[in-house]
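Researcher: Please translate sequence to structure tokens.
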Amino acid sequence: MDSAPLKQFTPQEVEQTLFEVQKKIYPRALTGWFATWRWVLVWFTQTIFYGGAWLTWNGRQAILFDLAARKFHIFGLVLWPQDFIYLAVLLVVSALSLFLFTAIAGRLFCGYACPQTVYTEIFMWVERKIEGDRSARMRLDRQPLSAKKFGLKSAKHATWAAIALWTGFTFVGYFTPIRELGHEVLSLSLGPWESFWILFYGFATYGNAGWMREQVCKYMCPYARFQSAMFDKDTLTITYDAARGEPRGPRNKKADLSTLGLGSCIDCGICVQVCPTGIDIRDGLQYECIGCAACVDGCDQVMDKMGYAKGLIRYATDNAMANKLDKRAMWRRVFRPRILVYSGILMLIVLITSATLALRLPLKVDVIRDRGIPRVVEDGSVDNVYRLQIMNTEEKPHRYTIALKGLPGAVIVSGADAEVPSATTKAIAVRVRVPPGQASIGSNRISFVVTDRENPNVTVTEKAAFLMPR
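Model: Translation complete:
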């Protein structure tokens, strides 16, 4: 059987097929329940981010990740490199939380708390205040360059740049004390690394939130690609009720739908106009959808004006749409075993980690024996020298006593006491002496016991080896 001839493309058609010019999206401003929640999250996250760096605690910055000193200060908690396990736990908790929220209601994080979404909302608000709403911005972009257009565009980009640089400055302020950083900026004595990271983070904010916007979500964010692996038939997603909305079409507000043979969708396009990624949710769930529910707010407003019931576009599940489940039945299936397992594991990890942090001893000790050969004194006793690395993790100085156990007759000749300043590590040289005949030739096990003088419950025991020469 002869096959149908293949269509021949011209070079121009091939180029157009392989590359489609990205069309600029002009999201329309709107109000509504979900839009209010988005702005609540914007204010909440940015108050924490911008304000957290300026908080003080015990005379220092409350939240400071001091990489040079290898100390992380989080209010009264001081974390050291030895506490790296808590970073691993934090990553596990973040991953489980992402799985949990995605399994419940899709891309909740993307739509409400993702930095890309948050800063895009801020930058779009600035754009609307300076250039106007959707139609005004579209007209402005179509106009030839003029003094007014240049002024508006310059004001917008200058404001964007100011927000971006302040964001970069705040970000670096969590790693370099922000008040010192501010003084260095004002005195033009900023170091090269601080300058680089302020400009880098500021440029990333300016580029991602001001220029790239939805392209970051569509092409750069990996989450959009594997989110479907975490969805199932009972995951809440933004859904268009095609059974109710179709066939769509324009009509008079007072028209009888049954007479016209139309559904509730009036084909106004508001759901597309308010979408920050420019998709049409009526075509079904797409990977570009970030779950922000802007289309839900926009459609509900149109339904109100038409006198129709809300919810033509809403959060729903595939099973709820296919089986015509009511809200109560739908929510019962949302909290299914998979969700309960995720929640249980997440809660268990958080509780165990919290208990571990609360019960953690504010004292850490490392023992290193001096590499020199054991020293024999005049009466035949043998000395070994050790270096005790004592770490005081609390925000006040402590005095410690150092004792020995495990080898009868062994005594500490020097270094039995140590005073360590707050949140500091101090090396203490300790000389241990054993009388003749009290230890066997070779290696003998001993233990150093370091105890807080003010609180005897704070004690750490570390093993070591005492070497006895032949």
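Researcher: Any highlights?
Model: The first helix runs from residue 11 to 18.
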